[in-house]
């Protein structure tokens, strides 16, 4: 993997795992990245800055009140210089200080200024990690959009075992890669719906479909990593999402419509990936129907609202509305019909065979173009869709 041209700032805290961060710095440098390190006072109790200077070929920064670098506002320059920041080991103390906005040394002051993606690699005794304070602080930071890798479970330096080991340097590197995505969606507000919907027949039975919600989640995750503020309206069973995504879980099409409309009123873009049930039961039963209750029963269905068409028809609609269409044949023809009927700006047409699977291919269809998207994975498919959105 080449990180040529990428600039990584490593913020090094005062934990016993500092020596393993030296290997991380070496790997990043070997991959072609320019690596600069900031060490806290405690970190320097464990390992000398010389180790990191020798490995990175760069001066290690340690002081906030440094007359030479602060003439040029060094803490601000370092924050602006980096494409991404890794904090390793992220000690309990650093995590607490970041969560509370304390800026009393070089690293914590950089973190107050930093608007780049930050990856925390925590390492500490397992009781320290499990403590209510650390868990609260880490959740706060995740909700603010910072990323976390690890800690891993295993034998700890203190002799105890449990969750608290610093992740392997290669694992930290792999977790950092997506953060180097360009921040080209900063300032945009996206609303995405995903997953199936489920319509109640009685108190326990549902009409639903095979949609997995994976593509919607991938789009939402990528958009948030690229800087957008994202709201995901998620149907039942939709996989976990990035903590910085505002996620609203719903069950029925009616609930999804309400949530989508209220979120879309403030959005720049709405993407409808959800497989919304076209029908619902006209009169769902209260409680659980028994086998005998169903003798001679006929079930009356009524049409559900067309969510994406309703969003496209809103008075203050998002600037762009993108729909998905799963078809069995004549994908482009059907997509063009839907484009006009629903009043949307683009349709991603895909094959019903892809539903619920990890396969991904389709067509980007607008009034003027129909481009095939052939991807190796749903992840690449999601990335291509975002690129088409940005280019169109
Ligand atoms: C030998 C030793 C090992 C330590 N290891 C850790 C550790 O792995 N994780 C941690 O959060 N704190 C650890 N600490 C405590 C931190 O050094 C201490 O909280 C310090 O204030 C953290 O400084 P920082 O904010 O610069 O990271 C250790 C302390 C000692 C003396």
Explain this structure:
- The protein is built from 15 helices and 19 strands.
- The mean pLDDT is 90.
- The two termini are 30 Å apart.
- A hairpin with a 5-residue loop joins strand 6 (152-155) and strand 7.
- It has helices at residues 18-30, 43-46, 49-56, 67-70, 74-81, 92-99, 106-113, 126-130, 132-143, 169-176, 214-225, 253-264, 307-312, 331-342, 378-391; strands spanning 7-12, 34-39, 84-90, 118-122, 147-148, 152-155, 161-165, 189-194, 199-200, 206-207, 229-234, 246-249, 269-272, 279-281, 301-303, 320-327, 346-351, 361-365, 370-374.
- It has 2 domains: 7-180, Flavin prenyltransferase-like (Rossmann fold, 3-Layer(aba) Sandwich); 189-391, 3-Layer(aba) Sandwich (Rossmann fold).
- Helix 1 crosses helix 10, helix 6 (92-99) crosses helix 9 (132-143) and helix 11 packs across helix 15.
